[in-house]
Structure formats: C-alpha cells, structure tokens
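quick one, 190 residues, struct below
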Amino acid sequence: MLALALIVASQPALAPALLYERTGILRGEYWRLWTGHLVHFGPSHLVWNLLIFALAAVWAERLAPVRTRILLAVAPGVIGLALLALDPALQTYAGLSGVVAAALAFLAFTQLTPPALAGPPVTIPARPSDRWFWRGVLALILLKIAAEFAAEQPLFARFSVSGIRTVPLAHLAGFLVASTVHRARRRPPA
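---
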C-alpha cells in the first residue's frame, strides 16, 4: 500500500481515475472505494499519512502478520463504503488517513492483547506501563477524531488544493474496522 501510494504520487495523471469520487462509484466504478486511499491532496497530506502508516503497519505486521494483512485488505473498502453510505454530501475523498487510523488502532489493540489470545507469533505481555501507553494511544486517536469532527479541519496535514475538508468519519471507520479485525482473532482451542 505504501509503494502504491508513492507510485500514484509520482504519477499525478493516475489520480483522476483512482480518486474516491461519489458519482463515479455510483456509476459502477467500485474500485474507487479502495483506490481513493492511494491519492493525496499534496505533499504534507502524503508525508503525514505515509510516515504513520509505515510505522504502525510494519510494527503490527511483525506482531500479527495474518490479521494485519486482513486489516489492510479490508479497511480501505469498508471505509469507502462507510463514506458512501454515511456522508452523501462527500463528493471526493483521498488519502490513507482512515487506513492509518486503522493500522495504528490495530497496533494498540494488538499490544494490549494477552499473549494466550494473540495467536502466532506469541508476543511478550505488555508491562503495566506499556499497557497504559497503548491505552493512551487509543484515547489519543479517539480525541483526534473528536477534535476533527469539532474543528472540521485536519490537525496535522495540510492540503495543497483549496476547498478540501478533513473527513473524520474515515478515521472513525478505520478505528472501528481495526477493533472488529482485532476482536475476530483466532481463539485458542478450549
């Protein structure tokens, strides 16, 4: 996903065909539900998304490779469907931020998982101080989402194109997808 976002950023002519565009999706261009996450509205938007995505996704994959891959395959489409169903005024959307929220939340949930439930590879149980850290990460993700709903602007990235607004619904959907994938982990036999 990281490589694909970099390819799209280096080839701006690809963006119009990949952008989440409501009218295109409603015409049957369903790939836009996934590919819109690969398009970014400027360098700041791209860099913030790729930086956090790379750290969270690589770390999560080391802890729970199969579930991380499932998350990264499913999250873009689910986030796209959530935007389509729940924000009919949203005509265009771009960026990995919803998937970034999913990857970071999934990493935190995974770090908080007791080793017996984590599945292979077995992780070392988090120390109490680490558990507080990861709970804090989850709380900060939710606070950031709430602040973006309230402020109607991004807290970190800046867009190069005027008229673009942040879409905290994508971040919330990503958080919920991460929670769902985390809870669907394989349980050890009784």
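The mean pLDDT is 88.
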